[in-house]
Every structure is written in structure tokens, then in C-alpha cells.
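Exercise 3.2. Students should predict the tertiary structure of the chain below and write it as C-alpha cells, then compare their answer with the key that follows.

Predict this chain's 3D structure.
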Amino acid sequence: MSNRNSANFAWMSALTILLGSFLLFQVQPMISKMILPWFGGSPAVWTTCMLFFQVTLLAGYAYADVLVALKQPSRQLRVHLPLLVLAVVALLVTGTSGLPNIVPGDSWKPTDGSMAIQRILLLLLVHVGIPYLVLAANAPLVQAWFARRYPDRSPYRLYALSNVGSLGALLSYPFLVEPLFATDGQGAVWSGAFCLYALCSAVLLLNLARLPGSHELLQSDEVDASETSVPEAAPVPSWGTRLTWLMLPALGSVMLLAVTNHLCQDVAVVPFFWIVPLSLYLLTFIICFDREQWYSGRWWAPLAAVAVLFVSLGMVDKEVEGAFSSFTGMDFSLDALTDSIQVQTGVYLAMLFLVCMVCHGELVSRKPAAGRLTSFYLMVAAGGAIGGAFVALICPALGDTVALGSPFRKILSSYFELNFGLLASLCLALSVTCFGWRWLEGWSLSIGNMNVWRQLLKLSCAQLGLGAIAFATWAQVTDLESYSLVIKRNFYGKLTVSENYSEDPGYHGFALYNGNILHGYQLQQGAKRNEPTTYYERTSGIGLAMDLLAPDRAKRVGVVGLGAGTIAALGSEGDEIRFYEINPAVISLSGVHGVYFTFLKESAATCEVVLGDARVQMERELADEKFRPEQCYDIIALDAFSSDAIPAHLITAEAFKVYSQYTKPGGVVAFHISNRYIDLVPVVMGLIENTDWRPLLIEHFDVGNGGLHTASSDWILLSRDTALLDEIQAYLQQRRELGDRSSIGYVPDMQGQPPIRWTDRFSNLFQVLHSPDDYNPETAGR
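Answer key:
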């Protein structure tokens, strides 16, 4: 019977730690996806959520450390059981219809774009704070209970099992949970599973407390079960060892969040790009903690160093190409590395995996005896929280500057956490490579007391390492270098204002960049200041809609995304143009009282700016009982998709329903879909499938004489008024017959490709990825 009870306890431990770890990581993308649209689809939503989860994980590990210190299982039971009950009650309080649920209600939707980080942290604290704290304590507690029950067996295999559960949770979310369950269903299923976990945890601790002669957790690595003498206590780790427990996971956390930020800024903010980096991060934990033999610094560290150098090479591709051509006289191109989003994504993810393998492999090689595992996990969690705070709080705070006073401020205003992490990772990998190769001792040739080959090889490695660090440092500084007037970085991204062509009055102007993407250009010479430029010229899609829709009367226009405010230059006297902008920094630069861009101030139309996410604000305005049909828009222009990272929640079926309700009969919904990597035509076509809306794709080509004030653009105009779309198409055809080939309008030809319908529940980005070389304006539309 004793053996049977022992086996049951082992299986119950495995089930509890597996279920708890699954729920711990399943809730992360789940609730982050729920609140993502409320905060403009910013990549920082995930970073902020990760900060909360890492800090709460630290609190959970600290709680586990304190609870285990109580020694007696009966005392632990009196503390832990009420906390489990409190967590279930918290889910019932925040749930609906008397059932547990973590889905936040509409009352949590922000009224504007301010204090985003504080609002997210408060929301998470209320809805998942206590349950997540309990789940965070799960892994160290169950391992401590297991070590108490089986003092002669290592509990670290359970840690690997917990990471398997975590990885399963992450991978199942985008492929199973997200496509199959609506938001409310996801929250209800997770909450029900948490109640089951709470029951398993309580039963496990009750069984431990009822064991006859239950003894305290032993403070040693291994104990012979037949021994009756008290074993020696495990040695106290040095402060140097404890520091590595803190700094190695901190570096891994920095790299995880920095790479995730980079991917989201370059592609889109979707759960897939949260989950893949986090899954690789967890996979390194699984590999390293399952068996120490899986990690060998002599192989993983050099690979990590090469990967970091490869990423650094991509950051200075133009400089390297120029230097190579000057030195050799031959053409050399790195376009295959820098122009393909698939290749870039693969390179960054491979680099993240290799760096985390070194961080976590070196961490595991320094792990303590089982008796000190809770303090070990506490330090690991603290390191992760430090890395999360560095990326989510410290870096944006340092970068929130108005003017540039020194190169140091330029660096702080950029996304320097990735550059910092790359340099730190390279130094770590090279130090392990040069000074951790114990296997070289077998290759040495002794002359006296000197191992010649080993010393020479180490010296050569050190010299190569210094050269690699010098190159990587130059690459990071070059990547951060800026000649801008203003750089602003906050929760919503990085804005840059630059002055261009100051020596040429005809082209002289200010440019606004969001990340690396041009978001507007204003000429500075006299009457040209109010001339529509870049993607908004008169023959662009939005320019044609503004000029040809009801030209004899005033129009109401809603614009999603302010940018430089260039659309205001298309307005006429009597028009009302309302811009929706979630980023306060954009408003300070381009609003009615903008410092650098004066399109709104000098427009003939009446302009106003609403601070907040456009979809949330429109939903709130439509729900207002004072709303009247005459307040609907003649034109809604969605100008939020030209950045590398697109807010997917603004182009879903649910979002288009809002736009449809807010558009007057015969009005136009205009989507600006110019994008280097994403073809949104199938997605827009999916929005109007089986409806009475009709599309017209307007491609405008850059046929100017140079300068930033002209740019190619793609707009899709949607309207129920087919006569208006026919008029626009005929107008463009007439201009082409007269020799003006700057624009062309046509109904998109899907060429057998089915429309793609995105919803709030699911959007598959890989269906619409394309290479920048796929688009050829010379043959477009023919």
C-alpha cells in the first residue's frame, strides 16, 4: 500500500505541475490578445503584459520560498489552502453570470491613449493577479513537496516537465484555442481549468500533510534512503554564484523581449509573433534543465557568437557593401538577408535560441542542491523581472525626450535594448568560448609548465573575440546613429522628425518617421507648405475620394491615424475632418498646435483630433444616445497600415461593421494599404465578401523628380455607390489617355485566390506576407 501511495503522489505531482504550467502560459497570450485592440495594437502591449507576468512570477517564487520555510506540511496547508480558495473567488467576482471568467468587461476600455502602461498593469492585477500568483508558485512548490516526499530523487526533472506544459500552452493557443474559441469561451474554459488545478494542488498538499512521519526537506543533493543519520547541509552558494543566477536570466529576458519587439515592429502585432520567441525561450529551459549533457559551451557559445555577428552584419549592410566594393572593386549585396522578412525573422529567432541556450545552459551548470531550489528559482525569476522592467519601463522612460542634445540622448531615444542585448550576448558567448573550453586541455603540448597549444589557441580566440566585439559595437552604434531634429519614444513607438534638403528651397521640408517608415512630409517654401504630399497627393486614392465625392457640398471626414496630418491639406472650406490618434506624441508634433507640422493649423477645413484608439472611440460614439445620423462620415480614411507593424484589430470583420455603421449612404471607406511586406488586398476583399460594398484599387506611382515629398501609394476605396467608383475610374483613364500615368484604378483581380476574412478571434498573417520585390508599379493593374 505504501508503494502504491508513493506512486500516486508522484503521478499527482506530475499532473499538478503540468496543468499549472499549462495555465500559467496559456493565459499570457489569451488576455494580451483580449486587450490589444484597446491600446492601439501597440507592440508594447505584449511587453507590458510580459512585465506583469514576470514580476508576478517573482512574487509567486518568493511566496513559495516563504511557504517552504514553514517546514511542516500542516502549516503550509493552513496558508496555501485559503489562497487557493481566494483565487477561485477572485475569478467568480470578475466573471459573469456567477461563473468564473477572466475576460475584462468594456468598462476597462480606455477613454484615451494616456497612461497605457498603468492601465494595463491595473487591469491584469484585478483580473488575473491572484490566480497568476498561485500558478507562479506552482512549479517550485510542487518540486519542494516532491523533494520532501522523495528525498533520494532529484526534483529538477519536474521543472523540465513544467516547461513542457508551458510550451504546450503557447503552441496550442494560435493553432487550436484561438481559431476554435471566441474570447468569452477562452476565458471561461481557462477559468474552469484553473478551478480543477486548485483542487489538484489542495489534494496534493493534503496527501503530503497526512503522510505518517513526514520529514523536513533535506538540504543535500542526494541522500541514501537507507541512511538514518542527518546529512550535511548543502553548501551556501557564494554571492558570485547568486549574481549569475540573477544576470544570466536577466540577459535572456532582455533578448526575448527585444527580439519580440523587433519582430512586432517589422511585421505585425499578433499572438504568433509573441508565442514563437517565447516558445524558443522556454525550449532552451527544457533542454538545459532536462539533462545537463544537452548543453556544451564549446559548441553552443561559438554558434551564439556567430549568430550575433550575423545579426549585426544585417544592421550595417549598406556600410559593409560599400566597404567591400571599395576594397575589392566587386559588387556585393546583402539584400537576400535584409529584404526578406522571412529570412530576417528566421535569423533573429535562431540568434535568440542560441543566446538563450548559452544563458540557461550556464545557469543550469551553477544550480544548487535540491534543498535550495526555491531560492534558486526566486533569483531566476528576479532576473527575468529585471530584464522585463529594463525593456518595458526603463528604456521607454529614457527615450521619452523632446529634443536631442547629444549622441547619448540619440541612443537612449532609440530601441537600444536590442543593441545592448546583442553586445552583452556577444561578450557572454565569447567569454564562454575563450575561457570555458576545458576540452582543449586534452589537446595541449606541454613544454615545461606551459601548455603551448592551449595558450596559443586561447590567445587567438581572445584576439578574434575582441575584434568581433569591436565590429559589433560599431554596428550597434551605426544602427542607432541619427541626424534627426527630434526623436520621441513612448509606449506606442518611436517617432523621428528630420529636416531634409535645407540647401534646396524647392524640396526643403520636415519628414516624420514612425520607426523606419515615412509618415508624412511637409514642404517649407511659401504656398507649398499646404500642398498634399507623399501618399496623399491629389491623384492618390484618398485625394481622388476627397475631390470627387460630392464636390458641391461640405463633407465630414474621419481619419484613423494622424501622422503628419497631410490629409488636412485635402480639405476644403466647410469640410470637417476628425483625426483619431492614440499616440499623444504624434499630436504634439502634428496636431492643431503641432510644433513641426502645420497641415491642420493651415487647412481650409475645420480639423480636430480625438486622442485614443479609433475603433474604441467610434464604438463609444455610436453607442452614445446623443449620436445622430448626420454625424456619420462621408469618408472614413484608414491610414494605420503603412507601418511595418499593422494594427490587425482595425481591419477585421468586427471593425468594418463599425465603419459601415459610421459611414453615410454613398460614402467611402478608404484603406491605405501601402506596405513593404504585407499584401492586404485579400483581407480587404474578405471584409466585403457577400455584401453590397464594391472595391476600387488606386495605385499611385512616384513619377516626381526626386525628393521625399512624392511617394507611391496603394489605396482601396470601398463604397456602395458604384457610380462614384465608376466616375473615379473613368477620370483616371481619361488622365492616362492625356499622358498622365501617375495613377491607375481598377477592381482588384484575385486571380483565383479566395478572399481572406480576418476577425477579432483569428488572423493569419502568413497568408498575406510577400516580398518587397513582388510589386512592380510598371505592370501593376495591367
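Discussion points: Residues 215-232, 437-450, 775-782 have pLDDT under 50 and may be disordered. The chain has two domains: 7-211+239-432, 495-747.
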